Amino acid sequence: MSLSQKYKAVFANWDKEVFRDIHHEDFMFIRETELLTLDDHVENLDKLALTTNFLKNTQNGQLIHENEYVFENRWKEKNEMVTVVILIKKGKAWRQIVNRVP
Which run of H or of E encompasses 2? Predict the structure, then answer.
């Protein structure tokens, strides 16, 4: 199963520990002004999954590109186009950056 398929599966049936497991132990989420560690990222997504429609929005995502090193996904959320790029290391998400464009 590809990494994008693993993301899609865990977002369709949310499980915090399964989500954690698809990420490399050295994972970093790169924001415009800060870096989130794996623990921070998992807690943030868990909160979004339990309190918002975030996971539903991502289910409409379009896979732009994927290979063994990277995958790019894009979806519309409210009035923004959201692009996510994930670098892959040893089959797991290693670095992630998100761009939101109105």
Answer: none
Q: Count the neighbouring beta carbons within 10 Å of the beta carbon of residue 54.
A: 15
What span, in angstroms and rounded, lies between the C-alpha atoms of 12 and 6? Answer: 10
- The candidate with the shortest Cα–Cα distance to 86, out of 102, 99, 101, is 99
Classify residue 78 as left (phi > 0), alpha (psi -120 to 50) or beta: left
Radius of gyration of the chain (CA): 13
pLDDT tens for each residue of 38-56: 999 999 999 999 998 887 7
Q: Which CATH code for domain 3-101?
A: 3.10.450.50
Q: CA-CA distance, 62 to 93, in Å (whole number)?
A: 18
CA distance 76 to 53: 13
pTM score, whole prediction: 0.89
